[in-house]
Amino acid sequence: MEVYDINSSPCLLVIGAREHTLQKLMTMQVQFVLIQSQLDPLTEYLVENIVFVDTYENLSEISQIAENLHQAHHFRAVVSFTEFGLYPAALIAEQLNIKGNAIFPVDHTRDKLKMRCLLKKHQLDSIVYQNCRTLEDVYAFYEQIKAPFILKPAHGAGSQGVFYVDAVENITKAWNWATQLDNQELIAEEYLLGKEYSVESLSLDGQHQIIAITEKLTTEFPHFIELGHYSPARLTPEIQQKIQQIMLQFLDIIQHQNGPAHTEIKVHQGEIKMIESQTRMGGDQIWELTELTTGVDVISETVLHLLGLSQKTRNKKENAAAVLFFAREFEEILDINGLESANNLPGIVRIHCTLKKGQKFGKLSSSQSRQGYILGTGHDIDEAISTVHLAMEQVQITTKVHQD
């Protein structure tokens, strides 16, 4: 890899950022300019070089802004670690002829239909699926498979619009749920049996490394909203090796070039099935679990690689880590106590809780509906899981039933 002198101060263009991303960039002391959607406010980390746009979907506007900024800053690379900034970043990398990820891997993971077609073409997966543009398409799919299936937006994120269908009478309800945000293209996929995991990886110039496999805890059907993550996953060495082999094939097939990937899978009777993938780091603090337990900081390593700077030494801090989410629904919060004592328990890294007296919650509809998390560590995964569950039990939440 070509290494540049850090004194030459290469500049990075960032498309969309969370506060933890900006914190890392400022800790690294790299020069960067941020293009940020007005819909993604930043409260803690204010940066001087920031340009706000209404939405990441206006590609012509973002491309023009990037081109104008490039004249002044001479960007060496462009990157995004957020779902809706991935495609604009890849497009800008191509247009400005600078380092970044390619359009193909982003397009073929953001679009779940394209990903399924690609997997089928390369015989990496064999599940039954169908593009559904109308309610009639969904009924036809059910008649075809006569088995439970998942209906979800083809370009969705954060468990939004996901619905499990196991009977014909649930199809209209599923359609209404999946199209509630936008009457967009849907995909119907046969329901996969087994336990769910996510695979965290890092690619640098097309060279892939499988970093971690994380175990998932979700709500039951019909929506499967994530309630917790445990890292490392409790899997046999044989299954871990099988997952790694399939993932390396997958990353080659989608032609992933630069940056992390977060891929959801299911394991059933020794078989590995792909659910979906994103060319970004895992949300839900999975990136933090991974960093704690492996020492791999995917943000820093991606940025340093793209800018041609020397990589830092990896520093594993913990053997295992877990995160558990506050996920109240159909309740009014009357009182909440015990947060401070829970936060002081051994192994607790952080408690972030947005619950307040007087809040009223309806149905838990997506990951965005949750109300914070507890993150903890342990000498092994069982201890880490016990740590966060014990802390959750220490938080005393008094409620009464609330219906929308």
TrEMBL record:
Enzyme Commission number: 6.3.2.49
Signal peptide: none
Gene3D superfamilies to which the protein is assigned, alphabetical: 3.40.50.20, ATP-grasp fold, B domain (3.30.470.20)
SUPFAM superfamilies linked: Glutathione synthetase ATP-binding domain-like
Organism (species): Fluoribacter dumoffii
PANTHER family listed in its UniProt record: ATP-GRASP ENZYME FSQD, FUMIPYRROLE BIOSYNTHESIS PROTEIN C
Top-tier EC class: ligase
One Pfam family from the record: ATPgrasp_N
Keyword tags: ATP-binding, Ligase, Nucleotide-binding
Annotated ranges, domain ATP-grasp: 116-307
Lineage: Bacteria, Pseudomonadati, Pseudomonadota, Gammaproteobacteria, Legionellales
Gene Ontology molecular function: ATP binding; L-amino-acid alpha-ligase activity; metal ion binding
Protein name in the entry: Alanine-anticapsin ligase BacD
Signal among keywords: no
Claim: Heme is one of the keywords in the record: no
